[in-house]
Amino acid sequence: MSALPQPTISLVSPNLKSLPTPKTLLKTLSSSPSLTHLKQIHAQILRSNHSHSHTLILKLLLFSPSLPYSLSIFSHLPHPLPSLSTRFVRHLSRSSRPEFALFVYLRLRNEGIKIDRFTFPPLLKAVARVEGLAEGKEIHGFGFKLGLDSDPFVQTGLVGMYLACGRVLEARLVFDKMSYRDIVAWSIMIDGYCLSGLFDDALELFEEMKRANIESALMTMYASCGCMEMAQKLFNQMAPKNLVVSTAMVSGYSRHRRIEDARLIFDQMVEKDLVCWSAMISGYAESDQPQEALRLFNELQSLGMRPDQVTMLSVISACAHLGVLEKAKWIHVYADKNGFGGALPINNALIDMYAKCGSLERARGVFEKMTRRNVISWTSMINAFAIHGDANNALSFFHKMKEAHVEPNGVTFVGVLYACSHAGLVDEGQRIFASMINEHKIAPKHEHYGCMVDLFGRANLLREALEIVETMPLAPNVVIWGSLMAACQIHGETELGEFAAKRLLELEPDHDGALVLLSNIYAKEKKWQDVGELRHLMKERGISKEKGCSRIELNNEVHEFLMADRNHKQADKIYEKLDEVISQLKLVGYFPNTRSVLVDLEEEEKREVVLWHSEKLALCYGLINGGKDSCIRIVKNLRVCEDCHTFMKLVSKLYGREIVVRDRTRFHHYKDGLCSCKDYW
Ligand code: ZN
Ligand code: ZN
């Protein structure tokens, strides 16, 4: 390589009266100036102190009619950014003087200036054009030192470089190591064999490419259809496993709730892109593992990756699932800061998240701020009111929605009917159900009939509830029989309840809810023999009542309690507090209500079981550790039992605390001894 040419810059420009702006300089540069003119512009840039302008310098390099002059400018730049070097190297690699790209490389390398992965492909292309094998090998070695030799684009560049230098074996070695090959890499290698006259090798590789492409196409298809066994079989045969096929497997497993299998592949991947992270996060969010979804989201951030809207939606839904308000607020701020605040789907998801985290005010705050609202926004808000037992607002928003000429859909009606049924608004619910069919021409589905059965059932209109079941045009499913059965249980209607539970078990013999409810009905009637038989049946089938579990979030930490849990590090203090609360409550007439306990225990033991329900433990933890005025927020996976409901009401009065409990379907806001559900849940 010859010595670098020296720059010859004329710093004197006779025509220069006032200093030009960068804009005028850019304009002049873009008009293909002559070398003399370009030198003048260069001088102006230096004099006017614009020499730090990345754009101006780049234009100067790219528009110079003399490549040696460009090179001399570059060699005098104090600290060229990798992006500028890359653009210049690419320019040179395509020019009549590709060897100049090597001067650039030498300068950067010798002075220890940063070179990134994007500089390598054009650099290798320049080497290929000058057939500089020694330089190419040196660059290969340097790339290896930087850990870039596994980057698919660098590898493709290396294959092309070795082939251009007549080194087919070296090229093939790099090619075989590639973990991801796109069509460009395959064709460069096949082309290389052809150019070297190695037609058999070319043909063999061509067949391999076809096989690999068909395999990966088939595998992706199986994965997206959920035929994970077939997909996994093909995936196992594949070598190398590239980013695209691995991501397809992760998405396939996640979508079909096989989260452990998805994670296995996810963890084995060397390189992951956002699509892959997003698939994994939404997999956790939808598989009842919201905490893991949020943990993975934190990891993604710590890697400096920016989530896209799909990932954000998964994270928001995970937070909604978890029901933790502090985390919800944080995610809201994060979404705003990262430019997601204006997106309609994000705002709709935020409404749902805040509602499920117990803050109706914040859900409403998001709704009010929205500049554009669609049917999902309105439906989410109506649902928010419904699950918080605010039937008045649910109905008023339903009317406002219609005034705003937003047409309600089937989901909207589920929310409105739910609100009516939980508030005991039988007439209103009936009217709305009729309007859905007659005015809005929406054919009711199972969930609508379920709401109607619930509406009548809760109001102790069991005859009307049964009439719905008997006259509905669809075959009643488990949801319908389940609603009827639950209503019968609330009102102690054993005969009809037993009938409903048996129909339910015909449809789903393993339905644990039906078995439990049936045994509850027998338990209430003290038919202990029937209870025993059912429990035996359940044991035999390996079914047991889902364990009650309550969560409470305090100081950004989530604490989980099971029934009679003694695993918490503050367990002793919690049970001490529980004893204290019980004795305080007994002074105002509290007595444990054991009606929800289905096991055949002595009355004394039953009382103990009720007192150790997980939400009572979470409540005591909140009483010990929360601030005096702060609201205690608990998320429970099952329906709150009658005893816990009374307990919470009394604590809210005696201890002057606000308590918010989210159970399986709705919220209870306890304040001054009352609950927002008006004891109707
Ligand atoms: Zn309870
Ligand atoms: Zn309540």
TrEMBL record:
The gene is LOC18603007. GO terms for biological process: RNA modification. Keywords: Repeat. InterPro entries: DYW_dom, E_motif, PPR_At4g14850-like_plant, PPR_rpt, TPR-like_helical_dom_sf. PPR repeats lie at residues 182-216, 242-272, 273-307, 374-408. This is Pentatricopeptide repeat-containing protein At4g14820 isoform X2. GO terms for molecular function: RNA binding; zinc ion binding. Belongs to the PPR family. PCMP-H subfamily. Pfam families: DYW_deaminase, E_motif, PPR, PPR_2. Residues 589-681 form the DYW domain.
